[in-house]
Design goal:
This protein is α+β, with helices and mostly antiparallel strands. 31% of the residues lie in helices and 21% in strands. The strands form six sheets. The protein has a 15-stranded antiparallel beta sheet that branches. A three-stranded antiparallel beta sheet has the order 24-25-26. Strands 16-17 form a two-stranded antiparallel ribbon. GO terms for molecular function: hydrolase activity, hydrolyzing O-glycosyl compounds.
Length: 610
């Protein structure tokens, strides 16, 4: 019997095809794969349990003398084909993992290459559909060159040139790979009623996939400082885009914990409006305007409809029903339970999403991603509704579950919504109740400065009447709510430095409070918020501190350049869903700001006008 336990989060690599992603451990085990879409039920779910919940191990066979002495890994040709090299006492092999681009059927390919000597290899496949719950019926293909695994609507077919056999509901092969050998494993996903597709040439698919990623990253126009880190983040973001719609998932995983062993475990396989403008900024900073147009169009389609039904997040196809439930049969990553599928926060009121959506549409208009009038009637409808609700309490940008409050950052985002729309009216002559909007903008600004500012602490606070802080307040000078030299801004940044920095100087979102959050436990430093502090330093002209903090943040990345949501300073590990789009978007944006040496009033580096 062979089983696996989940590795450290940063020990996984990402591969994807624009439809879904898989996480490949440095030990050669694929422990997470939702197929055929990002939000489909996982067929490999060992990441949130153990090997019996589904995994695919392909590595040197330790029981036959193949224990790895050295393991190294990298992305081939700086693309998205993951190469893991195992050095053993008897030789060296490399495993190439990728999800094939350009195939009609979602395809996962693993190729074992013999580099030196002869190495015993173990292939141990445990298929478990429905997040590790359903054991499929496995039969041999008619040509005896692979297997067919089927359970209900789901079906996977594996083809390979080595003999396969069953061991206690596992599919196993043991073989020797010598120098010069190439052994391909090709797995496809299809509906259970579909016919068996023709075999795929693994080496041809490898060349096609490498060429796709090489061509894509060659289009990158960012050549400033830290270009390799920026390019890796852009590649990661591209892999998180659902190609049919242009929606980008916050992460390809669910329930990786913000606290190891805790209950802060959420499903991030959806598209957040909170990320809207930052997504446009980062993608355009890399020169990827086609993806920016797709995201802008996805955003407009997602929020279309009645303004009072705007959600904080949607499915990758714009789906609105994201019901949350718990997979009780999974033990959770590092015992972190419950494992949640779906996200109940989709039903929350978060006023900040209005600011994010309108800021993104404003940015698209400013950079000519769309016609000046495109979507304007939708924006007017959103603002008419926001004018009636901005005074209400909400759950805030961090989706707390302890009840609604008057969160300061939410109100600032409402100000951003009216401010960006007013700018567009004044610049382009768009039809709107300008005087009314200006009056509301002023009222929001006055309300925040009066009720969101604590005079005793000389800083803005998390919510009206509170004494605690919120890292989102770092956005005040970035979005232009107040100038960076304003004493209230200076006091707020100083307070965040005093109260929210961990031992390594990284920023926590806030100090956890069960009464506010509605959940127990602690969390790590929020990586995106730490990038926000870099941006705030730039706004204040504190360039030396900005560069120093950015350098420390880059050091948090895995050996493959990947970032999770948070960093646990005590454990010295990444935590939270992985890889996290918000972290990589923030990295790209901040790198561009540092290269430009300044920040625009919309919180971005200078961007070209198409």
């Amino acid at each position: 019997m062979v089983t696996v336990d989940p590795l450290k989060i940063e020990d996984y690599g990402l591969i994807g095809d624009g439809r879904s992603c898989a996480l490949v451990g440095r030990n050669g085990s694929i422990d997470w794969l939702c197929w055929p879409r990002f939000d489909s039920p996982a067929c490999f779910a060992a990441l949130l349990g153990d090997g019996e919940n589904g995994h695919w191990l392909l590595a040197p066979d330790e029981e036959r003398g193949g224990a790895p002495l050295v393991i190294s890994r990298s992305y081939r040709q700086n693309g998205m084909v993951l190469e893991t090299v195992f050095e053993t006492a008897s030789g060296v092999i490399a495993i190439l993992d990728f999800m094939a681009m350009g195939t009609e059927t979602p395809t996962l390919i693993r190729i074992v290459e013999g580099r030196r000597g002869a190495v015993p290899v173990l292939n141990w496949l445990v298929m478990r559909f429905d997040y590790g719950l359903s054991v499929p019926w496995v039969t041999r293909l008619p040509d005896n060159m692979g297997i067919n695994a089927i359970a209900g609507p789901s079906r996977c077919i594996l083809r390979c040139p080595v003999a396969l056999h069953g061991e206690d509901r596992h599919t196993v092969s043991r073989f020797i790979v010598s120098e010069g050998d190439t052994v391909p494993f090709v797995m496809v996903h299809l509906d259970s009623h579909d016919p068996v597709p023709d075999p795929i040439d693994a080496l041809q698919a490898l060349r096609r996939t490498e060429q796709f990623w090489a061509d894509w990253i060659a289009r990158c126009t960012y050549h400033g400082d830290h270009a390799p880190a920026v390019r890796r983040s852009l590649l990661t973001l591209k892999a998180l885009i659902y190609q049919p719609t242009g929606g980008i998932v916050a992460a390809p995983t669910t329930s990786l914990p913000e606290e190891l062993g805790g209950s802060r475990n959420w499903d991030y396989r959806y598209c957040w409006l909170r990320d809207a403008s930052l997504t446009l900024i980062a993608i355009m900073a890399g020169g990827y305007f086609e993806e920016a147009v797709q995201w802008r169009n996805w955003l407009q389609a997602a929020v279309a409809g009645s303004p009072d039904q705007v959600q904080i997040m949607y499915g990758i196809g714009g789906e609105r029903l994201l019901n949350e439930w718990e997979a009780g049969w999974l033990s959770g990553y590092a015992g972190s339970r419950p494992v949640r599928i779906g996200n109940a926060a989709a039903g929350q009121l978060q006023l900040d999403v209005y600011g994010e959506a309108i800021a993104a549409l404003h940015l698209a208009r400013q950079t000519r991603l769309c016609a000046i009038t495109d979507g304007w009637r939708l924006e007017v409808g959103l603002l008419q509704h926001l004018a009636t609700i901005w005074k209400e309490p909400d759950e805030g940008m961090w989706e707390v579950r302890g009840g609604r409050r008057q969160f300061t950052v939410s109100k600032i985002s409402c100000w951003v919504a009216f401010d960006r729309a007013i700018r567009d009216v004044e610049k382009y002559g768009l039809e709107a109740p300008l005087d009314e909007w200006k009056a509301i903008r002023t009222e929001i600004h006055d309300t925040v400065c009066r009720d969101g500012f604590n005079r005793d602490k000389n800083c803005f606070v998390q919510y009206f009447g509170a004494t605690g802080l919120d890292a989102g307040l770092l956005l005040i000078p970035v979005v232009g709510f107040l100038p960076p030299e304003d004493p209230r801004v200076v006091g707020t940044i100083a307070a965040i430095e005093r109260e929210l920095l961990d031992g390594n100087g990284f920023v926590r979102r806030y100090i956890p409070d069960p009464e506010v959050e509605g959940v127990l436990g602690d969390e790590g430093a929020f990586i995106a918020c730490s990038f926000w502090l870099v941006n705030a330093y730039v706004a204040q002209g504190r360039m030396e501190e900005a560069h120093a903090l950015f350098k420390r943040l880059l050091a948090l990345r895995s050996d493959l350049g990947l970032l999770a949501e948070e960093y646990d300073a005590k454990a010295g590990r990444q935590v939270g869903n992985f890889p996290q789009a918000f972290s990589h978007l923030s990295l790209v944006n901040t790198a561009a700001i540092l290269s430009a040496g300044r920040i625009t009033p919309t919180g971005a580096p200078p961007l070209p006008v198409l």
